[in-house]
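Pinned message: reference record for DUF2157 domain-containing protein
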Amino acid sequence: MHSEKFRRQLRQEAQHWRANGDISESQFQKLSDRYQFDQVDHASRFTLVLLGLGLSFIGIGVVTFIVANWNGISHLGRSVLLLGLFFGLNGGGLALWKRSKYQRFGEILLLFGAVALGANLAQYVTGFALFLGWGIGCLAIAYGLRLKGLGILAIALIGIGYWTSWSQIYFSPTGIEMIGLQMPIVSAILFLPLAYWCRSRAIFLLSEIAIHSALLSSLAAIVTKASVLPALLTILPAALLWSYDDSLWSSGKSFQPIARQLAVLFLGGLFFWFSFHWVWNGSLTWYTRIPEWRSLPSVVLFAGIAIGQWLYMLRKVRLINLNTIGIGLSLGLSTIVNFWHLRIQPLPIFAPILFNVLLIGLALGSVRTSLSNGKRRAFWFGILLLGLQIVSRLLEYDTTVLMKSFVCVVCGVSAIVAGLWFESRLRSKMNSMAIARSDYRSEKPPKSPTSGRI
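Predicted structure (tokens):
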């Protein structure tokens, strides 16, 4: 009976051989049947579930015991107990993590150790300081051991601390809460390098969400009617995300596609919101309070980065394509209309019409992109935008019930037909690629029996 580690390594090698054309699909299938490749992940997941359940019950038992006797324990005893729990979990987790056979078990213990770290810190600090210190502690371990789980936990903890303390950070910050005023910069410094260090798409995605949500918060804190910041508020995150280019400093895995997907999602939500006429009838009077100018450095820095990234793209002709031109025009028109509406003259009729057109353009652009690269997400995102736009216009304006029901039925039928057409087109494209690969392999010259020998 072959070990699970041997079968996992053999499966990786066999997949590599198949990709290079060294073995055929039938040979790979024979290896898979003989060594049961399909059972490798199942066994690993089953073991992980058992370990997780066992540790959960152990943790519940320990926590229940401590809570039941917490009031009878002195402050010194509590500190010793929590410190012992912290060092015990992290020490045991680190020891197991170093052994490949028990590495996942060690990662679970390290996660519990991170929870113990928060329990220790909660004795001395609260609020934003607690979550910031807790998150930084988890980040230190994540950087040291390249643990994706702890990195995700750290981003979540710092985000919880920031948003639960938002009002105090922006209205009456004191001490460590002043750091929260520059949270976009802090998030970029703390989180983005970890995404590349761990090569984790999940950490990069959460990092970008953390950075740009904090940036929107900083923008909203300094908006005044006399400034151009309302226009900047609507486009800066999308401008940063679409122009993001990590090839300038990273020669490994690129996360640019994720950044651009986030930019399209942001623009879809923004254009959909601005497509309602009632948004523009109220003149957008959401800037009445006193601005918090201490968050201005983050806004200025990221606005400068966005300008620099777009100038770099414009200098490189190969980076300009139809999608980039469309996004650039959308950002420019959105800025002009927003600025004009707030500073020169209200546009209660023209503005919603324009943003409806931009929303249609974004949806059709997503569908066009999906047809060229065969990605289902882009196709269904475009279909969803079109459906939401049609339904929302029916609900917004005074139409008969018969018309609403008819349009909804038409939208449903159209979505089904479009989906079936896209799947058939995608299937035909994949079959054509498979035939082309098989023809290429059949045309490859046979290897010499003495090749590679001295």
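Pinned by admin. Summary line: The chain is about 75% helix and 0% strand.
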